[in-house]
Amino acid sequence: MAAKQFGAMFGAHLKMMFREKQVWFWSVFFPVILMVLFMIIFGGGGGSSEFKAKIAVVDASPNVSSGMLLEQIKSIPIFELTEGEPVTLEAGQTLVEEKEIDALIVLPEVEGTSEVGLIVNRENEGGATTQAISSIMSNFVQQANLAIAGVPPTYTLELESITTASEDTSYSDFLLTGMIGLSIAQGGLFGMGDLVDMRKRGLLKRLRMTPARMGLFGLSSMLVRLMLGIIQITILALVGVYGFGATLHINLLSLSVAFFAGALVFNAMGYLFSSFSKTMEAYMGMANITSMLMMFLSGIFFPVANLPEWLQVVPKVLPLSYFVEGMRDGLIYAEGIASSSFWIGMSIMAAWGIVCFLIASRLYKSQSIAATR
Question: Cβ atoms within 10 A of the Cβ of 370, count?
Fold first, then answer.
């Protein structure tokens, strides 16, 4: 009897999913658009990742020292001089104010003076580009002082990056897998709005009068969303690989475990939100708050370690943190399921899913259904 009910409910949810054009837009096309935008903004659009900074130089009183410094500045590969010749201070300040350049470098007017000015827009003072330019110029001035003093540098810095993933793994792969995890999570969080609409129209009240089990009703809806999640991950991975040159190293076992666990967790959370939301606006508001909270605290765009120390405890209790890490393990790290941290994450996600599903089923059985009578 239960199996027959579940099959009928699953078929009904499947038909509703294919009939609803909005479901396909918000669950498939919108995540693709969102991922493309974030990949362009944070990942460099799949093009060259070489950093460039636009600068201008002021050399009000050309002398031997300023001429030497100017030639050395021109030789710094990441600097793009917007003008072929030095500009006046007033013209350079205007360029900075209008944000046509990232910085203005002012060379010393007096021979032998060591002060080199750096003018930036106050609105961009804390930006990454400004910080990079400031660091480069600070090092440049130190090297120039050593050269004038005739002191050879004793120490040099050699940068080497390593990873537990394959050597061809890049930040774009890190961002892509995070966006895939976010899209699947949002599909679950926002995908249960049809249940709110059914309650509003009194359909759940009628369903309550039948022998149908609300737990099976919710489970069948979540499994249909699970199928939609498979479509999501396939399309998003193809866009990432062929549109942005991402490199994936897939471990099917860990990917399958993480995907099924995560998809069920976030569908269960969406099911919970729908159980106590009396209007679509309330449901969307709850889903949006949850999505935005987890989006920036779950290591999607940058490692959790980059967060302030006092805030790093929050990602440890968010299911999206473990889902994204599980997806990255299955898509780029390919470490498999032998890691204990992998199973700890899956256990935390399972706890979230079980609790959300049980609470939602209880609410649908009592409070939510009673409210429609």
Answer: 11
